[in-house]
């Protein structure tokens, strides 16, 4: 099991990005969470098998139809053992 911290920048708030991300994560069996950040980006903590994480990143880098992803940064981190994938609010 691997875990990733993912930051997505661009037009990613107000376009259904978090709901899109949760749907993709749940479809692939990815655990963790997604949340909007104050700076207009979206933060994702994702845990799962390497191949599924690769597929997840591929989808997230595109985003939903109304999104415009301009940058995505990925950093490996330690798994925290989430049991589902949730939308968090700050």
TrEMBL record:
GO terms for molecular function: acylphosphatase activity. Signal peptide: none annotated. It comes from Thermotoga neapolitana (strain ATCC 49049 / DSM 4359 / NBRC 107923 / NS-E). This is Acylphosphatase. Residues 3-89 form the Acylphosphatase-like domain. Keywords: Hydrolase. NCBIfam families: PRK14435.1. It catalyses: an acyl phosphate + H2O = a carboxylate + phosphate + H(+). The active site is at 18, 36. Belongs to the acylphosphatase family. SUPFAM superfamilies: Acylphosphatase/BLUF domain-like. It holds the Pfam family Acylphosphatase. InterPro entries: Acylphosphatase (IPR020456), Acylphosphatase-like_dom (IPR001792), Acylphosphatase-like_dom_sf (IPR036046), Acylphosphatase_CS (IPR017968).
């Amino acid at each position: 099991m691997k875990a990733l911290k993912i930051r997505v920048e661009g037009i990613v708030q107000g376009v259904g990005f978090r709901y899109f991300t949760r749907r993709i994560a749940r479809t692939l069996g990815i655990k963790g969470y997604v949340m909007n950040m104050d700076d207009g980006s979206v933060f994702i903590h994702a845990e799962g098998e390497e191949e599924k994480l690769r597929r997840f990143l591929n989808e997230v880098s595109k985003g939903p139809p109304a999104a415009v992803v301009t940058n995505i940064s990925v950093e490996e981190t330690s798994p925290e053992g989430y049991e589902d994938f949730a939308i968090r609010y700050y």
